[in-house]
Amino acid sequence: MSAGILTRERRKSLERRIRWIVAATIAYNVVEAIVAITAGTIASSGALIAFGLDSTIEVMSAAAVAWQFTRRDPERWERPTLRVIAVAFFALAAYVTATSALALILWVDVEHSPAGIVITALSVVIMPFLSLAERRAGRELGSATAVADSKQTLICTYLSASVLLGLVLNSMFGWWWADAVAGLVIAVFAVREGREAWRGDACATSVGMLLEDADDHHRG
Length: 220
Known about the structure:
There is one protein chain. The chain is mostly helical. It has helices at 8-43, 46-68, 78-106, 114-141, 144-173, 178-199, 207-219. Helix 1 runs antiparallel to helix 2 and helix 3 packs parallel to helix 5 (144-173).
């Protein structure tokens, strides 16, 4: 990944932008975790509780990037921060796989949760904008960690959509297994992105990013 030639002022501006984006991501995920875990506990929903706990992993990833960009020389901490993000991806994949598998094995029935539907729907709307903003700033700056963290946010968007779909399908049709199956699919993406972050290959694209790249190429 190459940042090209950036002026000192532009570099500082991008670093400030990334710090603000990361701060917004952390703040939102803290609220999301509290609401999801509370709603999941009330509704006895393992999917919602898992979703809330996943938000804490996103907070860890974003906090690692925030810490990096408070250093005097952020590029020096690129590799260690990427490793932290990779571990967050692997933890996310492991947790989602375990909870989804248990839900399928134990036939866990997800109860109707209006609060859960609202918070996951909000996440589907909000998180892609945060991911896209951080990714663009990270690519211009040449920061592999910012791009990797934007992927973590995008993965959480996919997870939000899968949990939302599961809650809606369960409420409408009684399909208790829908969110668990979707969670297993998300786990595959998380493992892939974790491997890329661990190798330092954070410029690779995931499904959502391929769509934007194609659009950018078309406009170019």
